[in-house]
Amino acid sequence: MCPVDLTTHMAGITLRNPVLTCSGTYGFGEEYAAYCPVEALGGITLKGLTPEPRLGNAVPRLAETSAGLLNAVGLENPGLEEFLKSYLPKVRKLPTAVIANISGFSLEDYVQMARALQRDSGLVALEVNISCPNVKHGGMHFGTDPKSAEEVIAAVRAETDLPIIAKLSPNVTDIVGMARAVQRGGADALSLINTLLGMRIDIDHQRPVLANTFGGLSGPAIRPVAVRMVWQVSQAVDLPIIGMGGITTWQDAVEFLLAGATAVSIGTGNFINPQAPLEILQGIQDYCNKRGMVSVRELVGLAHNA
Amino acid sequence: MLTEGQVVINERFGDEEQGLWRLVLKGPIAKTAQPGQFVAIQVQDSSISSFDPLLRRPISLAEISPDRDEITLLYRVAGRGTEILARARCGEQLSLMGPLGQGFSLPEEGELWLIAGGIGIFPLYALAQSVLARGLTVRLFWGGENQSFLASAGLFLWQALGIPLQLSTLDGSLGQKGLVTEQVQERLLQLFGQTKQEQPLSGGQISVATCGPAKMMQAVTKLGIEFQVPVEVSLEERMGCAVGACLGCVCTLIDEAGTLIHKKVCLDGPVFRGEEVVWDVSC
After folding, report:
1. Rounded to a whole number, what is the distance in Å from the CA of A195 to chain B's nearest CA?
2. What is the pTM of this model?
3. Can you list the domains of chain A with their CATH numbers?
4. ipTM given for this complex
5. CATH architecture, domain B111-234
């Protein structure tokens, strides 16, 4: 069998392969070192940053559901200053592409972080989270109103020379409209999708399970929603898409590529199997090989031709 | 590490009404595991993969036998995940991450008091074995609902260790009626006198390891501070990744400067010094 070319090009970045890990599920890149070598990955996306340090929400922050996981971590992070001082020097040495993820409560928050994170930071891109469902007055406001979304992306665009990936919320009626808005704002790529807003109630104690009441649903349960959104957006908007949402097996990943994603990202799947990214990568290769494809790029959007 | 454990024994432990199970797994984890650490075990019917339940279950190590390459997990069937785990058959391979977390520190000298509430007793057994093997003195304080619970949760194992046991039950059906912390306090007072004396109290060579309900561990920590006895607590929280990446299982501590900080129960714990834990928090 010929080796399949896994190289993935997106937003001016070249990735070793199309398998990434999702923000908030992979810490700052060292946590999974004993399970999955980062050099095997196409890249990693760091935990979401805010300008100021945040302790996040109270526990319980997690609630399991059928084939899914609700989380309400609430953007706990060390803050921009501490990130630049203590995390970035280590992170930039990681032998893989590193994408930073930024969240904010105001336009100024995003601007401040974009200004501090540039190409010479050693990052390959900036993922702009306009879709966090777990903080009050949080990023999701920017992610559900197209005009705000365009503004925030434009503001970030003006401040950084890094490629910008807009991470969109699925909690909208018109995902294509949101994608068009961030494209107008100057986004170079899209991450689709963030978590779906949900909740669980503890029937013994007759109260919400999560301390935050609501949380973001991830895991296999949301995959069909994510695939549908990748499909719709890839048809209508000419931006590369990182597909994510419930990918746990190579078959899931192939589905996203066929729907139009240029790359895929593994989140909750890491919790189930910390070697999932490696197995998914192997599976994608085997799939291409069996079908005589010389490059993984041939898969992207293929199902639209059917 | 990500590894497999072969089921050697998976059987009911004690009375059926208590819903307790004992799982012995053969695999490499036993070689490096320390008391107080845990494994994240995949609970799936191995004949057909499923995503319900989705997450691994963190379970503490009740016994570590490096010579036989075996670990023992004691668990209570309390939901779909543990129900499926209870169906695992001999010879089956279960996926394990571990050993995970920071365990108990092993005292160099003196007397170790183990203070357990309910099934918090389980990780303390591995600790007792390890500490007794080093020739130290161990005393157990253990509280449970009733005689049936204590008998089901391994009382005979503790009796076989030949150490002093101070038992409490809520209904008085075995040991002293009341809370385990009452017995701990009585013992401390016996040994070190009233707490309101002029001279500072000293717990001498005693150290404490405790596991159980948060309220109990909080009370034990308070006694520890009062009598200057170092206390280690084993915390429990819902976990996602079990490696410190998802921040699902944080606890709140107070650092030396008096600042509230978060630590990850899965990575930085589950064992912490009792006095650094902030028990009543809303952030």
Report:
1. 14
2. 0.94
3. 8-305 (3.20.20.70)
4. 0.93
5. 3-Layer(aba) Sandwich (3.40)
